[in-house]
Amino acid sequence: MLKFLVLLFFKISFCNGAKILIYNPEYAFARSHRYFLGELSDILADAGHTVVMYQPHFDADTNVTGSKNNKVQTLTRASELDLKLPDFVEQIWTADESIYESEKVMNELHEMFGKNCKNQLKDASLMKKLKNEKFDLGIAELFDPCGFAVFEKIDLKKYITVFTMGLYDSISNLLGIPQATSYVPTGYGGVLPKTNFYGRLQNAIGTFITWSTDIYRDMIFSQVIYETENRHLSVYEKAINASFIFSNAEEYLDFPRPTSYKVVNIGGFNLKEAQPLNEKFRNMINKASKIVFVSFGSVTHCSLMPQSLKESLFEMFRIFPEFTFLWRHNKPEAENLQGLKNVYLEEWFPQQEILAHPKTVAVITHAGLNSVIEIGYAGVPAIAFPIFCDQFKNSLLFEYRGTGIALNKMNVTKTTFVDAFQKIVNEKSYKIKAQNLAKMIKSKPMSAKDRVLKYTQFAAEFGEMDNLDLYGRYLNTIHFYNIDVYLFIFSVFMVVFLLAGLFIFFVLKIFKKTVIKSKVE
Fold first, then answer.
1. Rounded Cα gap, residues 357 and 101, in angstroms
2. Does residue 513 lie in a domain region?
3. Separation CA 234–CA 232 (nearest Å)
4. How many Cβ atoms from other residues are within 10 Å of residue 232's Cβ?
5. What pLDDT is attached to residue 207?
6. Of the segments 112-121, 320-329, 331-340, which one has the largest average pLDDT value?
7. CA distance 448 to 269
8. pLDDT grade, residue 100 (50/70/90)?
9. Could you confirm whether the keyword Transcription appears in this record (predicted)?
10. Residue 493 predicted with pLDDT over 80
11. Which of 189, 268, 360, 419 could pair with 291 in a Cys bridge, judged by C-beta atoms 3.0 to 4.6 Å apart?
12. C-alpha angle with apex 250: 245 to 252, nearest 5 degrees?
C-alpha cells in the first residue's frame, strides 16, 4: 500500500509540476506576442508547474515581461544589437495594406531575429545554464523561431509550438493539411471565404507570397544554425515536430478550415471574469448613458494618425453627442479635442472590463487577433479598422459572423466612421449576432484555458508523438494531390474515348459501305 502511495505521489507530482521553459523575446513592436506568452506562463505557474520565462531583449527601452505572476521565474539576456525598426511606427498608418507590403515588414523582422539568434546560440555560458536546468518541456512561438534553435541546442526534446496570430499557411501545408485557397483566407489577406474568381486569385497569390516569406525565414535561421553549430536544421521542421500546435484561434469565431488533431485552438485562454473598475474609470462610465470603446492597439501611435482619419473620427464624435467615446491614445495630453465633451482619452483603459460593461454598445478596433477574440467573448458589435499584417484578415471575421463592419484605411472620407457607426447602432442584427456568438464561446464543452492545461500536461509526459501526424506531410505535391492518379484516370478515359471513337468511326464506315453497296445492287 505504501509503495502504491509513493508511486502515486510521484505520478501526480510529475503531471502537475513539470519544469517548463518558455521562450518569450522582449521587443517593443510586438507587445501582444509578449503578453500572450506571459499570460500563458502565468496560468501554467498557477497550475503548479515550475515556469522559467527566457527573455532575450531586443529593445533597451522596454522592461515588461508580459507576466504578472511572481511564481514565474524570468531569465533575461541583453541584446548587443539595435533591433528597432525606426520608420515602422511612423509609416504604419499610411503603408499600403497589400500582402506584399506586410511581407516586406516581416522580412525585415526576420533578418533582425536571425542576427539576435546567432548571438544567443554563441553565448556558451547561457546555453549551458539552460541545458543544466533539465527542463521537461519547452514552449516557443514561430513568429521568432529562435526558440526552436535554442531547444535543439540544449537538447530539449519535448516542446509545444505556439502561434499568436493563428496557423500560418506554410505550417498548415507542412502538417499535411490541405491548403484550401478557394475558401480559407490567407494569413495577411482581405478576402472572405465566399468570393468571386478575382478574390480566389488574390487569395492564391497571397498564399504564395506568405509561403515565400516563410521559406526566406527558414533559410535565415538554417544559415544561423549552420554558422554556429556547423549542421543543418530547419526551424520549421522542428516546429511541426512538436507534441502539439497551440493556435490563437477561437473556432466559433474564426473562419472554418481543414485542420489536424495536432492543432489545439487556445484563443481566449487568458480571458477572465471582469473585475470592478477603479474610481477613475467608474466615474467616467457613471456619467455616460452609452459607451463606445476606441482602440487602435499598442503598436500604432494615435499621435501619428493622419489628419484625414482623425477628422473622420472627430466628425463621428460630434454627430453622436449622446454616446461617450473612450479612446485609448498614446499621448492624450497632446490631442486637441476641439471642445468635445463626450470623448475621454487615456494611455490605458481596462479593455476587458469596459467591453463587458452593459453600457458599452460598440467598439472601434484595429482588429488585432487578441482584441478580436476579446470582443467576440464580450458580445459587442464592432467597427474594424485594420492597419497592418494579419489585422486585414481578422477584421473580416466580424463581417463573416455578422457582428461588425470592416473598413479600408486607404479609402477614408470624412463620413467613413459616421456611416459605419450609424449602421452598427441602428441595425439590431449586429448586437443579436454578437451576443449569440459570445454565449456560444462561453458555453463550449472545453474552455481554452482547460485545453492549455491538459494538453501541456500531456505533452510534458509523452513528448514528441507521431500518433497525430497526417501522413500527407510526408508526401510530395504530386502524391498529396493525387495528380499522378488523376492523370492516369484521365489518360485511361482519353484512350477509352479514342478507342470508342475509332470503333464508331469504323462501324459507320463499314455501315456506309454496306449501304452504298446495297443501293448499287
1. 37
2. no
3. 7
4. 9
5. 84
6. 320-329
7. 4
8. low
9. no
10. yes
11. 360
12. 135
CA distances from 169 to 162, 187, 210, 332, 362 (A): 14, 7, 7, 39, 32
Cell of 162: 505556439
Give the residue numbers spanning the domain of 498.
482-507
Out of 386-395, 452-461, 502-511, give the one with best mean pLDDT: 452-461
Contact 458, 159 (CB under 8 A): no
Residues 111 and 260 in one domain: yes
Residue 12 confidence class, pLDDT cut points 50, 70, 90? very low
Shared domain check, 319 and 263:
no
Structural domain includes residue 235: yes
452 and 365 co-located in one domain: no
DSSP category for residue 275 = P
Could you give the residue ranges of the DSSP H alpha helices within 139-267? Answer: 146-153, 169-174, 197-229, 235-240
Which of 181, 245, 113, 185 shows the shortest CA–CA distance to 386? 185
Cα 492 from Cα 466, distance rounded (Å): 37
The number of beta carbons lying within 10 Å of the beta carbon of residue 341 is: 9
> At CA 304, angle to CA 301 and CA 309, rounded to 5?
105
Is 165 in the same domain as 228? Answer: yes
My answer on whether 149 and 213 are in the same domain is yes
Query: What CATH number should be reported for the domain holding residue 43?
Result: 3.40.50.2000
Other CB atoms within 10 A of residue 44 CB: 25
**How far is it, in rounded angstroms, from Cα 448 to Cα 288?**
34
Q: What distance in Å separates the CA atoms of residue 167 and residue 142, rounded to the nearest whole number?
A: 10
Question: Domain check: are 259 and 288 in the same one?
Answer: no
- 3-state SS record for 486-505: HHHHHHHHHHHHHHHHHHHH
Q: Specify the range with the lowest mean pLDDT, choosing from 38-47, 218-227, 469-478.
A: 218-227
Q: How many domains does the chain have?
A: 3
- Find where cell 477561437 sits: 250
Return the C-alpha cell found at 307: 489628419
Across 191-214, b (16+ Cβ under 10 Å) vs e yields bbbeeeeebeebbbebbebbbebb
- Kindly state the average pLDDT of the residues 255-261: 93
Question: Does a structural domain hold residue 518?
Answer: no
The rounded distance, in Å, linking the Cα atoms of 79 and 117 is 10
| Long-range contacts, stretch 440-444, CB < 8 angstroms, 24+ apart | 440/252, 441/250, 441/252, 441/253, 441/268, 441/376, 441/377, 442/377, 444/252
Q: Provide mean pLDDT across the span 316-341.
A: 89
- Do 204 and 348 sit in the same domain of this protein? no
Same domain flag for 147 and 221: yes
Torsion angles phi and psi, residue 266, rounded to 5: -125, 15
Looking at the domain assignment, is residue 274 inside a domain?
no
